[in-house]
Amino acid sequence: MLARLAGDLDADAATIRAVVERLTPHQRHGLRPLPSPLPLVAAISRRFEGLLLDERDRQLLLALAVCLDDSLGPLLEFDGRTATEIAAAAVGDHVTLHAGRVRFVDARLSIWVRATTCTAGTALVHERLSAVFLDRGDPMSADWHRARASLERDPSTARELTLIARQLSEAGHPERALMLAREAAEHAVGEDQDEARLVAGASAVGAGFAVEAAAWLGTLYPHSGERHRWAGLGALIVAQTFVQGAVPGIDPTTVRPGSADESDWRHWTRAAALAAILCAERGDRRGMRLWLDALRDGAVRIGAEQELRDPVVALGWLMAGDRDADMVTESSSVSGGMLRTLRAAVEGDIDLGLRLLVVDESTPSGGPDPFVPGYEHSPVVHAYRSVVEVLLLAWRGDIGIARDRLIQAALTLPIALPLAGLGVVLARRLDLAVHGELGPFARSLTLTLPPGAKMDLLVDRGVRSFLTGSFDDAAATVRLWSDLGAPQTTMTVPGLDELASPSPGVPLAAASLEPPEIALAQQLRTRIATAADGRWRADGDEVAEIARTLRSPFERARVEMMLGSRHAIRDDHSAARIHLQYAERLFELSGATAWAKSVRGRLDRLEAREGSIVPAMGLLSACRAAWSLRLTARELEVAMRAVRGAANREIGEELNVSVRTVEVHLGRIFTKLDVRSRVELTVLAHRTDQHV
């Protein structure tokens, strides 16, 4: 929305702020279209205060403001002057004419001239434009302007406007389609009005205006004809899911067609396919199974097993984390293309996945897509592809490139909607990786998420604290996240498993989908964190050797950083420097500037604190988090009290155990952490807290 406002308001910051204050929250967040025209705010009035236009020039500017495009020809016929004459006239100071196009020099003038022209004057300009376009053989523009000129309902214009709106929507221009369909709905009656509302809702879905779509499609229930209700079912489920953050709790059997009409069954089957994928995106396996059963039933009835059922079933189970589900690769549908892309990536060939994504987007389909007919070229489908592309780039370790691509896509596409808000999670994590804090794009996108969307904000806070050296806060935050069940997206995004303690028998990425290299890097980091100190040198060398096979510079850098920290804790400064320097360079290579800066801080601390054995007297949260991976809960409590200087008797009294029990626990602690005394334990605690 901000990009659109910048274009319509000549990128004037004061005007943009004033207009934004007049918008509804849904309009600000891109869930409804911007008003047309934009409101006349004081900043615009002041900009054109004192501007005097003769009637002919005013009508020309108004005609330019209300036309559907910027073609010069119709405006010359409307005005009666040549392009040279217009350029030489007073009005020429306000327009730019070039290569058969005409535009406002200052886009804000369009708002001013529309707002300062009376209703009758505007209707007259529309009426004259309608005649111009009719003579030019452009019935779509003629009908549009005729409808806008009518001060009363004109049903004769509605049917043609609706037809053209549908064509525009299917051609990938849903915003213009929505504008025409809304106008058609104002004039239509009966079934024509139902059709206009259906097209308006479908166009709004394609544009990403979820609240607008739900409002238009909701008018079809329960009083419209069956044909329109079935036709709008899938789009309504999508819109409500985007608005609410969860798939509507509908039993598919309660909305099954009661007739044998194949068209009704086709719409119901597609709605089931959409609902199943939306459930899969959100990790709702129960809901996905329910809708997949409906899809199988419907696909048999309409004969769409291969083109619709098979790729949707395979994609749904893949998104749900089932890598062993039967996969199909021959479908040319959007679901089939997404399946091929993700399948290639999770099998380890991310480059192939990116190539397939480009091929699927650039290769025109031979006909309507069986999964999303009419939406093949829509912004919302392009948004899905863009989010998947950014995810694959992040998986490949191109953090800086992924962030740039996401920002570029956010300027034109509704990237907060696909894959249960995955684009927003990526925006936040990529911002943190590059800058160490959330930028304006990430913050703005976060505001667009519906109330039901699940965001693991604790991980974001943990990453920010970790990168800035606030290890106590990072450890406490990640521990709380783990206690809450370690919620995460269904597809793995860069998190903070450096400080995470897996639940017994449950890997941290159990519910997530990722390439094998991402999983291997996570395993290596867990192995570093949990390695027994007595075997550290051998285990560390083996982990370092395996880490060299990681192709993602970002994932390998995180392993190298942990190796360097562990060596620093064991007072092996030479090895620590080597691994930390590797990590710094790899982070820089990936574009993860904030991570590189964090490693540089560790290197600086390594130099500054070399030889120091002064224990940290605070809570030692980072140390506690690291030791919790190797000690039992009771051993951890004994160890932390010993580090703080408590005597065995004091520890026993605090924990309500005998002195002998404390001594046994300390013996086990010394063995597990490979130290020989309380002094060495205290030094180890300090180093762990500084370098973990």
TrEMBL record:
One Gene Ontology molecular-function label: DNA binding
Keywords, sorted A to Z: DNA-binding, Transcription, Transcription regulation
Signal peptide segment: none
Domain HTH luxR-type: 624-689
Pfam families (UniProt xref): GerE (PF00196)
InterPro entries per the UniProt record, alphabetical: Sig_transdc_resp-reg_C-effctor, Tscrpt_reg_LuxR_C, WH-like_DNA-bd_sf
GO annotation terms (biological process): regulation of DNA-templated transcription
Record CDD domains: LuxR_C_like (cd06170)
The protein's name: HTH luxR-type domain-containing protein
Organism: Microbacterium maritypicum MF109
